[in-house]
What does this fold into?
Amino acid sequence: MRKLYVFDTTLRDGEQSLGITLNVKEKLEIGRQLVKLGVDIIEAGFPASSPGDLESVRTLARELKGVIICGLTRAVEQDIDICAEALRLAEHPRIHTGIGVSPIHMEMKLNLNPDQVVERAVSAVKYAKKYVSDVEFYAEDAFRSDPAFLARVIEAVISAGATVVNLPDTVGYASPWEYGELIGYVIQNVKNIEQATVSVHCHNDLGMATANALAGIKAGASQVEGTINGIGERAGNTSLEEVIMAIYTRRDGYGVKSKVNTREISATSRLVSRITGVTVPAHKAIVGANAFMHASGIHQDGVLKGRETYEIIKPETIGVPQNLISLSARSGRHALQYRLEELGYSIEGAQLDDVYQRFLQLADLKKEVLDQDLYVLMGDSENPASNIVLQNMSIATNGLGQATATVILEIEGEVFTDAACGNGPVNALFNTIDRITGNLATLEDYTLKSVTRSSEALGEATVKLRYDNGRLVVGKGFSTDIIQASAKAYINALAK
Ligand code: KIV
Ligand code: ZN
It folds into this structure.
């Protein structure tokens, strides 16, 4: 079996698309979880794109060990200089440089002829090699390029020292058999291809990013690039968890093996969703809330007789353990800790006390506290202590859609009370909080969903605030009272 190198670009291609700038702390938290997951390469950002990205790449390069830390550049010397500086303290640094190779990119975007593109590609790789031995070259829009020209570029950059060659389907245009053919063509027609690893990088515009990546692997690629939960530009990137579980489940099908610890998949997915604010659809393969749920009578009957009838993946394999104890208001601290450990959290001492107190408050409101509730409690407890605290709130509605909210906030120890009207309770609430805090950011998105299924479920509110400088901040709030959850989410975003 060939080794499949797993290249995670959640923090670069994933983040780049969200309009959200994750801060360094958030990126580091995701980076640490990716190390636990066992990916081989983390693309931490595009350092030349902003000071924030530079700082994030620098921090991940310094902090994360046992993994390759990669930074993206254009085929531009200044980008490469900045990237090299960001990667200076990395144990295993990689520079990922490249240029567009399709006629559309060369003519419309770059205004360069094919010879000039080859020259720029080769110079960039040689320049990056002065800094690091591990240089990956991306042939942007490779799928829409002329295969013979693509082979020429790839041969030239390998001669210049590229250790990995990435052949992206940048716009998600390929069908699996065509993408597989392109990878096969490059492997067959590039004389020095043995000196480099071939990488697949697919986008999901036609819903085929996972299928295309797998076709490329089957055709001989040994590195796959993608993101957790498939987040990314437009319709997203290849979902790494889907590729990992496809090759795990169909061991004989692809001829490759990865070193990823599948049991960390669920925790990684939840963390990425929590930090980015991008909700995972319930029916999403592998990590959606319904992925292991059997709703129809026939399926339930079959699964009870033998799991294999309708289940191809054991939930435990991706880190969703079977639940043998039911948690309620009668459960002790130890039972809670035991279940949290099964879900992948290790907590004790003051943190356990804090979570247990909030667990009891929730258990008073719900008959049974489910795993989804625990994920929420843990997410909440990991939030930094806020300098804005909701002390009290009340809402009055007039039955015609209008509402008045009264809110008491404690901001850095000082208590403020105010009231405002709005179209409905949430609008009134947010207007009041704006009056107290002087918030000028615009509410770009607000969503509310229930964490579990019953009418006593926890409500999860997500708020996205856009600031004048373009920065988007995501806040989350949880409560069995959905108006309170909304207030908490708004305050959480403001506090960030
Ligand atoms: O989709 C793409 O072509 C990319 C490259 C910059 C690697 O993300
Ligand atoms: Zn991409």
Notes: The radius of gyration is 25 Å. The first strand starts at residue 2 and ends at 3. The chain is about 40% helix and 20% strand. Residues 13, 138, 140, 166, 168, 170, 201, 203 surround 3-methyl-2-oxobutanoic acid (ligand 1) (CB under 6 Å).
